[in-house]
Design goal:
Elements: H1 3-30, E1 37-38, E2 62-68, E3 75-81, H2 84-113, H3 129-139, E4 142-147, H4 155-166, E5 174-177, E6 181-185, H5 189-197, E7 201-203, E8 206-212, E9 224-232, H6 241-251, E10 254-258, E11 270-277, E12 285-291, E13 294-302
Parallel strand pairs: 1-2
Antiparallel strand pairs: 2-3, 4-6, 4-8, 5-6, 7-8, 9-11, 9-13, 10-11, 12-13
Protein name: DUF4283 domain-containing protein
InterPro entries: At4g02000-like, DUF4283, Zn_knuckle_CX2CX4HX4C
Organism: Brassica campestris
Length: about 350
């Protein structure tokens, strides 16, 4: 290229091409397949528009090739301009997420600072026995619980919906306990038992753990759901309450057996209430040997069961989301909120 052509190219880039390239960049941002083509020349390589909402990285340039004055002396001018739309949008979104992470880090740091042990060696302070006894009386009719899949069950929406499901809106209210647990205080034993007797309960088509509050409860007490299980396939000669309870104990922890040998109705299945451990996968069919060497296939149907993994049978995650090494809902988390009342 001659010196005059080089000078002309520089002038065109400065005074003519920049508006064209800017317009092209805008169109490219809106229409990823748009290419500005003036004249006859090979296809101009372009890249797809990508705006990251997770991390900041530079996108490829938008390249425009323009042929000027094609009827006389064709001049091919290449204009390269980094898409300021992509870059700036990406930086704005990245800055937003960075600020959010800074707020979370600051909150965690603020809480961590207050976890100091200052005062732990001071003399114990006795509280009023009257006040403590009144508190125990008020909270004796309490249910505590937790979601089985916290990332799929918003705990605040759950606490708002459960009283409506129970028909107790305006009578009871829930509150968060230690972030991932909730508590409902009932005005009477009868209302509390009516909720337990109609369980188990689900929210967002996934099971919810609900237990009666007892002193010294811990997280292990919130790892069971009581299911009524229908068992079919037991040979008639073995159809007794003892056999049914034995099968229930093998499957889980048998709590109650619903079987009346004096009933005149046909027995299609028997029922046993199992305190099912969430660490164990559900089983819907299983071979039992009522006599040595003879397999009898029994089938199980869990009443009021919602959402579980059809691959492994776990209640603590959805189908196709099997978690290795036995991790369960203990690893679910949700940001803290200082307002614990709903």
């Amino acid at each position: 290229m001659s010196a005059m052509s080089a000078i002309l190219k520089a002038i065109l880039q400065l005074w003519f091409l920049q508006p064209v390239v800017i317009i092209t960049a805008l169109l490219q941002a809106v229409f990823p397949q748009f290419i500005l083509v003036v004249g006859q020349f090979p296809t101009v390589p372009t890249t797809k528009c990508v705006i990251s909402v997770v991390e900041s990285f530079y996108h490829y340039d938008v390249t425009v090739k323009v042929e000027l004055c094609p009827s006389r002396c064709p001049i091919y001018v290449y204009g390269v301009l980094h898409s300021f739309v992509h870059k700036n949008s990406n930086h704005i979104l990245y800055s937003y997420h960075f600020d959010i992470y800074l707020v979370i880090m600051a909150n965690n740091l603020r809480r961590a600072i207050q976890d100091l042990t200052l005062g732990i060696e001071d003399e114990p302070v006795p509280l009023s026995a009257t006040v403590c006894n009144e508190a125990r009386r008020v909270n004796q009719f309490s249910l505590v619980g937790r979601p089985t899949i916290q990332r799929k069950q918003n705990i605040r929406a759950l606490m708002t919906s459960l009283p409506k499901m129970w028909g107790l809106s305006g009578i009871i209210s829930g509150r968060l306990v230690e972030r991932r647990k909730f508590q409902f205080v009932f005005p009477s034993e009868e209302l509390l038992q009516s909720v337990l007797n109609r369980g188990p309960w689900a929210f967002n088509d996934r099971m919810v753990v609900i237990k009666r509050w007892m002193p010294e409860m811990d997280d292990n007490d919130l790892m069971q759901i009581p299911f009524w299980v229908q068992i079919s396939g037991i040979p008639m000669e073995y159809l007794t309450e003892g056999v049914i309870r034995n099968i229930g104990d093998i499957m889980g922890e048998a709590m109650l057996v619903d079987f009346n040998p004096e009933a005149n109705a046909a027995v299609e299945y028997v029922r046993v209430q199992l305190n099912w451990n969430l660490a164990q996968p559900l089983r819907f069919q299983k071979n039992f040997q009522f006599s040595p060497g003879v397999n009898t296939l029994l089938k199980f149907r869990y009443e009021r069961l919602r959402g579980f993994c059809e691959t492994c049978g776990m209640i603590t995650h959805d189908s196709g989301e099997c978690i290795p090494h036995g991790e369960d809902l203990q690893n679910d988390s949700e940001p803290d909120d200082e307002d614990n009342e709903v």
